[in-house]
């Protein structure tokens, strides 16, 4: 009887030793770092931050206070549909506007991307206008030159 118990225990041990130590993984293929697609490679935290910033800052607009494209100028980047309020260097003073390629932007004559009557904005895509004084008036008879105070952009 003891022999049967010992043989059963040995058989059970042999069977248990033959089992894989972890979950079934299928075929394992070893690759070199050169074979890993770039999208999966991250060398350090700075790479992640740079990619995240690039995704968030997907639309840019070049604005100048003087036409054509004369300083002071700023290139401002933003997320899609994010209202940008211009700082004191440009608010109410913009004469040249150039959205980056791929952006469709709405420029407002108010500080917070608000148009209460439907006539306090105008829309632009790339390449924009080098001299807003050459644009006609909006529906309320106001010309856009030196009136832009805020804007937002979306994918064109």
UniProtKB/TrEMBL annotation:
Keywords: Signal
Secretion signal span: 1-18
Annotated protein name in UniProt: Uncharacterized protein
